[in-house]
Design brief:
By secondary structure, the protein is α+β, with helices and mostly antiparallel strands. It folds into 3 domains: 4-105, Orthogonal Bundle (Butyryl-Coa Dehydrogenase, subunit A, domain 1), CATH 1.10.540.10; 109-227, Butyryl-CoA Dehydrogenase, subunit A, domain 2 (Beta Barrel), CATH 2.40.110.10; 275-394, no CATH class. The protein has 13 helices and 7 strands. The protein has helices at residues 4-20, 27-36, 55-68, 77-89, 92-103, 218-233, 258-261, 275-289, 295-319, 327-350, 361-367, 373-385, 396-407, and strands at residues 109-112, 128-132, 135-143, 153-159, 170-176, 182-187, 196-207. A 4-stranded antiparallel β-sheet has the order 2-3-7-6, with no helix packed on it. The chain has a 3-stranded mixed β-sheet with strand order 1-4-5. Strand 6 and strand 7 (196-207) form a beta hairpin. Helix 8 packs parallel to helix 10.
Length: 428
């Protein structure tokens, strides 16, 4: 049963929608109305275009907007990661400058953290920012940048002091992606899609007043972002996907009629369309092709259902305000396990058909007439994509370390380089 608080939040936003929802507004106009009223990101504090609601109340608000039939808030990493990070670490001026444009959908954001030479050791990043008066000159390369091709802004980690240990010389910047010296190149995946990018930065500039959380304090700020990311990515967690409209000036959705996009979902591909959706998909497919009589398949389906339900219950506990140490990391690990099980189980159910995948629209259409139809295409894409989540957002090994060291209090792994200046560390 919903709590009094969640019922109150749902009632309040429903009344507001009845007075304010207008399907004839453009997406930009509607998002400005929604965002400035505090309903785009109600979990943000009141001084940061939110309402200070709990997670449970925020979920109730999101569900109410969807049920009402209005266009939901702008999705993407701006609302999921950048806004709460800036709300936590930013100055009042930065909250006004950046968060306002995020909650109203004016800017899309991407995450400029990972690098080819750093691997899972994020603190080993080598993209450098050098001071030049009131600006910083940035040079380096980032990789696995989701949404980089449509981003107006980026959450940039760069090394600003190589003379101190690696965790201490990093700064977090709000970085303009639409400037000379920034090149975004798509990375084609095994699925045939290109959800990720690599970003090359060559003497691009960022103002000193775009430093978030203080000079050389970027590691602490980045950990705030990562905590929000893992909670959002994990089993049963939130989503950066949003609705059918994309925020920002590049995607081209801001001038569209909001009513035409209300109630729709944009196909971003790569995943099963929700972890619970994978369980239901595989059950239906197994019944259709007779694999449901295979005891190994039945055991796998039961295991998948159990893991998905555990993830859902943990999410409900978190929504209700339950204190679960390391819940974001646990959820991230659960997602990886569920997707790997879905991969193996789905390919067993499909049999030889699982060796065929449509890597573009034409080939996918050609395979549509084979046994399994659209179900088979969803399974093969899920199987090809399953390798990604155990890497992005922090590898499974990193999650195990965090849970062991920070939650369970186990001894930290030996690190003889932790006190050495970054410039003296061996490099690949």
């Amino acid at each position: 049963m919903a709590s009094t608080e969640t019922r109150d939040a749902a009632t309040e936003v429903k009344q507001w929608l009845a007075e304010n929802w207008d399907p004839d507004l453009t997406v930009a106009e509607w998002w400005e109305r929604l965002g400035l009223a505090g309903w785009a990101a109600p979990s943000l504090p009141p001084d940061c275009y939110g309402k200070g609601l709990s997670r449970a109340e925020t979920v109730a608000v999101q569900e109410t907007i969807s049920e009402f039939g209005a266009l939901g808030p702008p999705g993407g990493l701006g609302l999921l990661l950048a806004a709460p990070t800036i709300a936590t670490h930013g100055t009042e001026e930065q909250k006004e400058r950046y968060v306002r444009r995020i909650v109203t959908g004016q800017d899309a954001w991407c995450q400029l953290f990972s690098e080819p030479g750093a691997g899972s050791d994020l603190a080993g990043l080598s993209t450098k920012a050098e001071r030049d008066g009131d600006e910083w000159v940035v040079t380096g390369q980032k990789v696995w940048t989701s949404g980089g091709q449509v981003a107006d802004m980026g959450m940039l980690l760069a090394r600003t002091n190589p003379d101190v240990p690696k965790h201490q010389g990093i700064t977090y910047f709000a970085f303009d992606m639409k400037q000379p010296g920034v090149e975004v190149r798509p990375l084609r995946e095994m699925t045939g899609r290109a959800l990720f990018n690599e970003v090359f930065i060559n003497e691009a500039r960022v103002s000193n007043d775009a430093v978030i959380g203080g000079l050389n304090n970027g590691w602490a700020v980045a950990n705030t972002t990562l905590a929000f990311e893992r909670a959002g990515l994990g089993a049963g967690g939130g989503s950066a996907a949003g609705g059918a409209a994309l925020p920002g000036s590049i995607a081209g959705d801001l001038t569209k009629r909001s009513g035409d996009l209300a109630g729709q979902r944009r196909d971003r591909g790569g995943g099963p369309g929700g972890l619970g959706g994978a369980s239901r998909l595989l059950q239906a497919l197994a019944r259709e092709n007779g694999a449901i009589s295979d005891p190994v398949v039945r055991q796998g389906l039961a295991q998948l259902h159990i893991l998905t339900e555990i993830g859902r219950y943990n999410t409900l506990r978190a929504k209700a305000g339950g204190d679960i140490p390391g819940v974001g990391n646990i959820a991230k690990l659960s997602m990886s396990i569920i997707l790997r099980l879905s991969r193996d189980l789905g390919l067993r159910i499909l049999g030889p058909r699982g060796t065929l995948h449509g890597y573009d629209t034409a080939s996918a259409a050609a395979l549509g007439g084979l046994p399994g139809g659209g179900f088979a295409a969803a399974v093969t894409e899920m199987a090809l994509f399953a390798q990604g989540p155990q890497i992005y957002g922090g590898t499974d090994e990193i999650q195990h370390n965090i849970i062991g060291e920070r939650v369970l209090g186990l001894p930290r792994e030996p690190n003889p380089d932790k006190d050495k200046p970054f410039k003296d560390l061996p490099r690949n």
